């Protein structure tokens, strides 16, 4: 799915070779500041590498239009924006921005079920907890139905039990729908339990990974 060859980004990332497989769950782990978010941003073409090449389905990213790529590859940032308004407004905003067809209320409730958020669509987001907001943002990305989900610490605001339930649900969903999940996580436990592949980054270099 993704293949990286001698990719260098500033002094932050230096990757000789890395492959990330289609239809698998890949977890990226490593200490704070090691370059995990930077790697996700490169894969989504939010930033451009200085040297080397990244291939997406055998095509160099430099040849793929960013907007087109981001229809297939959607990133959930570490601190996603939640807007004032209802849960429904917040779920639909991703679809509106990317000019995708809007979803029915039933579809919206389905995706809330997937992230285990038992709330009314009409509820104001200002009254949600940090972990609940994080799940609204996750639901928003899932609703966009991309081929590849790039998730940056999607469960950082959750307690361990809730984290486990939601990641399990997410991994099952991506497997059932033949999607590719690439997820940065602080939790080695989550990585060892759910990942098909683990990539470990240290000071911008891949030091260990079944994905290498
Ligand atoms: N645009 C930028 N310009 C310069 N330095 C940057 C830029 N973005 C990130 N950095 C630096 O690059 C390094 C890697 O950052 P990155 O956000 O990828 O780390 P991370 O592994 O995701 O960290 P964390 O787990 O804390 O989120 C850090 O030292 C950071 O300060």
UniProtKB/TrEMBL annotation:
<keyword id="KW-0547">Nucleotide-binding</keyword>
<dbReference type="GO" id="GO:0005524">
    <property type="term" value="F:ATP binding"/>
</dbReference>
<protein>
    <submittedName>
        <fullName>ABC-type transport system involved in cytochrome bd biosynthesis, ATpase and permease component</fullName>
    </submittedName>
</protein>
<keyword id="KW-0067">ATP-binding</keyword>
<dbReference type="InterPro" id="IPR003593">
    <property type="entry name" value="AAA+_ATPase"/>
</dbReference>
<dbReference type="GO" id="GO:0016887">
    <property type="term" value="F:ATP hydrolysis activity"/>
</dbReference>
<dbReference type="InterPro" id="IPR003439">
    <property type="entry name" value="ABC_transporter-like_ATP-bd"/>
</dbReference>
<keyword id="KW-0813">Transport</keyword>
<dbReference type="InterPro" id="IPR017871">
    <property type="entry name" value="ABC_transporter-like_CS"/>
</dbReference>
<dbReference type="InterPro" id="IPR027417">
    <property type="entry name" value="P-loop_NTPase"/>
</dbReference>
<dbReference type="Pfam" id="PF00005">
    <property type="entry name" value="ABC_tran"/>
</dbReference>
């Amino acid at each position: 799915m993704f293949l990286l060859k001698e990719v260098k980004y500033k002094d932050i990332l230096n990757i000789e070779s890395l492959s990330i497989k289609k239809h698998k769950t890949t977890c990226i782990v490593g200490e704070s500041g090691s370059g995990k978010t930077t790697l996700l941003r490169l894969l989504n073409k939010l930033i451009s590498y200085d040297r080397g090449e990244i291939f997406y389905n055998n095509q160099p990213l430099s040849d793929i239009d960013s907007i087109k790529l981001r229809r297939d590859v959607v990133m959930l940032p570490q601190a996603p924006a939640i807007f004032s308004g209802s849960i429904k407004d917040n779920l639909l905003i991703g679809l509106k921005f990317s000019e995708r067809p809007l979803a029915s209320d039933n579809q919206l409730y389905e995706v809330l079920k997937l992230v285990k958020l038992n709330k009314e669509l009409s509820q104001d987001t200002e009254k949600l907890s940090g972990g609940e907001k994080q799940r609204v943002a996750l639901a928003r990305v899932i609703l966009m139905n991309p081929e590849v989900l790039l998730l940056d610490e999607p469960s950082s605001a959750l307690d361990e039990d809730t984290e486990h339930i939601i990641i399990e649900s997410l991994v099952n969903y991506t497997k059932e729908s033949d999607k590719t999940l690439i997820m940065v996580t602080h939790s080695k436990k989550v990585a060892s339990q759910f990942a098909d592949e683990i990539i470990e980054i240290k000071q911008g270099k891949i030091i260990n990974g079944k994905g290498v």
